[in-house]
Design brief:
It is globular, with a radius of gyration of 19 Å. α5 (90-109) runs antiparallel to α8 and α7 (137-153) runs antiparallel to α8 (158-175). A hairpin with a 3-residue loop joins β2 and β3 (82-85). By secondary structure, the chain is mostly helical. Helices cover 68% and strands 4% of the residues. It has a 3-stranded antiparallel beta sheet with strand order 1-3-2. It contains 12 helices and 3 strands. The two termini are 15 Å apart. It has helices spanning 5-12, 24-36, 48-55, 59-71, 90-109, 119-133, 137-153, 158-175, 181-185, 187-200, 204-229, 232-235, and strands at 45-46, 75-78, 82-85.
Length: 238
């Protein structure tokens, strides 16, 4: 599974994001976003020459970016074969949801007294509903990820934001394997709205209960679908 010339042309458009102070961290930011969007799908081999030329960065800079993303469990290095976008095992998906439940529910529980600043959360809900009306299920998936990032952002913690950015990017590796994105994401549009409305009403405890049930149901559904698509032997790191 490779990357076409047209796709690399799109990646070249990201070169301007690097500015004059190109660093491995900024290259990693671009590649992380592209992986999360499915631009580089699970199992895809990342070509040093093609990506380096598209972004206009040195081989050493690109290798350092690869190393950073390997540490984040988004990439995997296969001896004598190169660097590939990681394919998650079912156990990885379950562990991601355990982490999400611990962090996201703790954020809601610790919100303090209402009113809460919910503009970002509201925008994510509206974006998801609009994408659903357009039957843009990839857009619904993206809006759903934004909803959970905005939820965690209510903690006003840079460290928590960074943690969840990596967790949610890793989760999208599983989403990109699933063909029926509508079946995977559509049921949660209403539940996102319910959590938003509970927080608007200052019902922090109620929002936490809704969120916990939401994450449990989502984990069960995704694991069930994912296990049917990816065999454990194929999903394990090679």
């Amino acid at each position: 599974m490779g990357t076409t010339g047209s796709e690399l042309g799109q990646l070249a458009d990201d070169r301007q994001l690097l500015g004059r102070t190109s660093t491995a961290e900024r290259v990693a930011d671009i590649l992380r976003s592209r992986i999360a969007e499915g631009f580089f799908p699970p199992g895809a081999r990342l070509s040093e020459d093609s990506i380096g030329n598209a972004l206009g960065v040195s081989r050493n800079t690109l290798r350092e970016a690869f190393r950073l993303l390997t540490h984040e469990r988004l990439l995997v290095h296969q001896l004598n074969r190169g660097v590939f976008v990681r394919v998650l095992a079912v156990e990885d998906v379950e562990d991601i949801y355990r982490t999400r439940r611990l962090v996201e529910c703790a954020v809601v529980r610790g919100l303090g007294k209402p009113p809460f600043t919910l503009d970002g959360l509201r925008d994510a809900v509206i974006a998801g509903e609009q994408a659903a009306r357009e039957e843009n299920w990839k857009g619904v998936s993206t809006a759903n990820i934004h909803f959970h990032r905005e939820l965690v952002a209510l903690a006003h913690s840079v460290r928590t934001d960074e943690l969840m950015r990596g967790v949610l990017a890793e989760l999208r590796l599983a989403f990109h394997v699933v063909d029926d994105l509508r079946g995977l994401h559509e049921p949660y549009l209403v539940r996102n709205r319910e959590i938003l409305e509970a927080l608007k009403a200052g019902e922090r405890d109620g929002a936490e209960r809704l969120l916990a049930a939401y994450l449990d149901d989502s984990r069960h559904r995704l694991v069930q679908v994912y296990a049917g698509l990816v065999q454990d032997g194929d999903a394990a790191e090679r």
